Amino acid sequence: MKNEKYLNDISEIKNLMNKSSRFISLSGLSGILAGVYALIGAWMAYKTIYFDTSTMGTYRDLVISEEAVIRLLVIATAVLVLSIVTGIGLSIRKARKSNENVWNTASKRLVINFMIPLATGGFFIIFLIEKNMFGLIAPLTLIFYGLACVNASKYTIGDVRYLGVTMIALGLLSTWFLGYGLLFWALGFGGCHILYGSLMYFKYERK
Fold first, then answer.
1. 148: part of which helix (H) or strand (E)?
2. C-beta of residue 143 within 8 angstroms of C-beta of residue 167
3. Cα of 92 vs its chain's centroid, Å
């Protein structure tokens, strides 16, 4: 009986330590919806790039007008904002169901460690846009987002690390096939988010 009590106490202590050091209220459903937003955004970007009279050239060597670039930035921003708002909303709902504080030490560390690589990549991509170097934008968004996931994974569910590694691999592969950046972008932000979000949902949330 005493041994069982000690084991239960140790298990309880481990759970408390895990909750205090990791933000475990990350919603898998938000990942699925982020993937859906990304696929819709990729479809809109595809129509803008390949069916817009303001773009010229072949599939691999496009000349994109300033108007088309602005439209693409609006689409990307809308996808990002929708994904963030959805992620925050669903994570708050999940935390409340578990009687947890959504804004604690672990979530603060998660946000900080996630934003450092992401913000760095964002500024770098802005500089590339200013220099009209559009071919590297899709690969670099995948790479820096993957780095952000890997960097933040130690403060949340460990599966996020695998998502990050997958994104980095797709980004590096995309640099080899520069003319197919939008396809890799849709595969990474759309397909991978839906896949990993589904795995997280069925693994941690569905009861």
1. helix 137-152
2. yes
3. 18
DSSP string, 106-123: HHHHHHHHHHHHHHHHHH
Q: What is the pLDDT along the chain (207 residues), one digit of tens a residue?
A: 545 544 454 444 444 444 444 656 677 888 899 999 999 999 998 888 776 544 444 444 555 666 777 788 888 889 989 988 998 888 888 777 777 777 777 778 888 999 999 999 989 988 888 887 777 888 999 999 999 999 988 888 878 899 999 999 999 999 988 778 889 999 999 999 999 999 888 887 775
Closest CA to 205 of 19, 52, 27: 27
| Token pair recorded at residue 193 | 């988010």
Residues 6+ apart with CB under 8 A from 61: 179
pTM, two decimals, is 0.80
Distance linking the first and last C-alpha atoms of the chain: 30
Longest dimension (CA), the chain: 77
Place of tokens 């790039």: 49
Q: Specify the 3-state DSSP secondary structure of 64.
A: strand
CA dihedral over 21, 27, 28, 32, signed as positive or negative: negative
Closest residue by Cα to residue 78 from 40, 112, 116: 40
